[in-house]
Fold this sequence. Notes:
- Helix content is 32%, strand content 29%.
- It is an alpha+beta fold.
- The longest helix has 33 residues, at 9-41.
Amino acid sequence: MDTPVEEPRHLRTLRRLVNTLTVVLILGFITVVVVIVIRFAAPAAPVLQLPDNIELPAGRTAQAVTLGTDFVAIVTMQSDGREEIYIYNLDGTLRQNVSIKVAQ
């Protein structure tokens, strides 16, 4: 009765390309999901503990702040333009004061 008709060559090639693309898309989607799960499952970065209050000496304005593992450094400028670095412990107490001199 019905005899099977052989597919044209270009149709078989197209079928293989579509199947290959399907497999690649599925693998790509699985890869994206796995990467997202791994990234969200990673431990969060440690939260820095900052002092509740740091008071700068009168007449100083903060120019920059650097957070270390056990200190907070603040670069300040005085009203006359001189710069100083104040290094505070994490409890807010002053550890060190460094004057910055411009090299000439």
